[in-house]
Amino acid sequence: MTIIRSLVLFALAAVAEIGGAWLVWQGVREQRGLLWIGAGVIALGVYGFVATLQPDANFGRILAAYGGVFVAGSLAWGMVVDGFRPDRWDVIGAAICLVGVLVIMYAPRG
């Protein structure tokens, strides 16, 4: 159950951070205005909070592992929201990052 909870929290954190960054991007780069930027800032704050809910107590481990989730999640967000099509190197790189997440977070420790 702890691993499932952790994976769900990583997914929620990814949506909050990537979505927040996307909203700021839209507000600034696509000139959609301060409401989009403000919503993005709030979502980024939610990401910071969600990360604290991880069962592991080590900040460095959580953020290092989340980096891999962020890489894969960013490519997925781009595909779904912006029509981005990753090439095979993007996919291979994201897969390597996700393997790193599994090793960092869920490897047996004595």
From TrEMBL:
Keywords: Cell membrane, Membrane, Transmembrane, Transmembrane helix. Its main location: membrane. One of its GO terms (cellular component) is plasma membrane. The chain crosses the membrane at residues 33-50, 62-79, 91-108. The keyword Membrane applies. It comes from the Bacteria. It is found in: Cell membrane. It is a multi-pass membrane protein. Coiled coil: none annotated. The keyword Cell inner membrane does not apply. HAMAP family: UPF0060. PANTHER family: UPF0060 MEMBRANE PROTEIN YNFA. Belongs to the UPF0060 family. This is Small multidrug resistance family-3 protein. It comes from Nonomuraea soli.
